[in-house]
């Protein structure tokens, strides 16, 4: 039986080593990510060990500048699952003045959705649209959240500053993402079926860590 | 420009429709999952939209029987991330008498790890080994947690009832999973680099839902 070999890497260096491996393997695949997208897409690959994301992650031209501006100015993040909220580095976000909301799991949201015969995602997105701070909406689970968001934007003219649209699944996930891509709102989308709560959190954290690590020059 | 088509599926039927699509596409790929593993592996594919899992999910022969016995008897689940804890259906688990622990995020675990120069995963697994209830350890993130678990089992003879080992990543993830596969402890492992906190939660929920939905015959 083949012996099992563990590589000795200092705990603090595992993430660094992982990101190097991802960089090397992207190179072997002949994939060069645009410099500004690279830290975000690579963190998604780090979170999933899935190189497909290198080909499907899609950024509107203004998405990253918008993300950094919103986060630096103390903007909030709205998620569609507690898992994404749980995965976001809320401690660092708080130092910037921001916080994470997840309306989906609040009991009165479930009650209102039931009463009106709509999904909890719809009610959640309506609540998000009532917030007055600059907002990033990060959807990692429910395509319905993106569809509702799109409807609210069409009907009211309200828009979040940025949409992170990476729900996962088999029913309406692909068209829901296309709706957002065509909306004109700055967005980071993973085209296709893949995504997830972990992917949404990874994207938020990649943006936060770029700021934390001084990789994003301050705007004059 | 091609029109965007949304499929109309009643909110309550989206999951059912998704599972049907997965079944159809597995068939098209010529993959038949063993009947007992099918609901678990299909839920993982539902969570990731990644059919690779159909080929890499690995169950020890006693894994599923053990899982159902432990959960039914009020056993607890220990996770290595708050994201997995957050994703598990704790409400249904409670009706069986179980709860979810995640020691990793407790402040004194971080302090102890720092003082002893070990990882938080190591300290967390030590704490898990002190629990007296039947236990499922579900690791979706840190390969170190599996390595530490293996060491504790070797050194003390203590063992959890079941190990769900689906960490994701590029450093020591593959060998850490092989260590567990060879340990003789009932286990559900995703071989290779892929996995994640969401995958660990999906596996726990698949097991819980089989019980909830009366799909697992009671043992006489």
TrEMBL record, chains A, B:
One of its GO terms (biological process) is cobalamin biosynthetic process. InterPro entries: Cbl_synth_CobH/CbiC (IPR003722), CobH/CbiC_sf (IPR036588). GO terms for molecular function: precorrin-8X methylmutase activity. Pathway: Cofactor biosynthesis; adenosylcobalamin biosynthesis. Residues 14-209 form the Cobalamin biosynthesis precorrin-8X methylmutase CobH/CbiC domain. Signal peptide: none annotated. It holds the Pfam family CbiC. It comes from the Bacteria. Keywords: Cobalamin biosynthesis, Isomerase. Belongs to the CobH/CbiC family. This is Precorrin-8X methylmutase. The lineage of its organism: Bacteria, Bacillati, Bacillota, Clostridia, Peptostreptococcales.
